[in-house]
Design a protein that fits this description.
Layout: H1 3-17, H2 22-29, H3 33-41, H4 49-58, H5 63-67
Helix pairs in contact: 2-4
Length: about 80
């Protein structure tokens, strides 16, 4: 599992918890639909901190809150 995969799982978790659509997140975060699709489908090779910041902001969270989930503590994350 790479960093993009973990971020995608976190996004899907938050979308589910907050009953938010992908479209609504794209609108609030200013991340284009194509970019969000590549992240969520695993077609993206890596993700920038700027994009993580935008996504966190779309959820009305800080980057620390977004990255504070237990999923980011896994030893199995392949950091390239």
């Amino acid at each position: 599992m790479n960093t993009n995969d973990v971020v995608a799982k976190r996004i899907l978790q938050l979308l589910n918890e907050r009953h938010m659509s992908q479209y609504k997140l794209e609108q609030k975060s200013c991340v284009y639909h194509g970019a969000m699709n590549r992240i969520l489908t695993g077609k993206n090779k890596g993700i920038t901190l700027a994009t993580v910041y935008k996504i966190a902001r779309g959820f009305n969270m800080t980057v620390s809150e977004f990255l504070g989930a237990d999923i980011f503590n896994s030893e199995d994350i392949d950091v390239e």
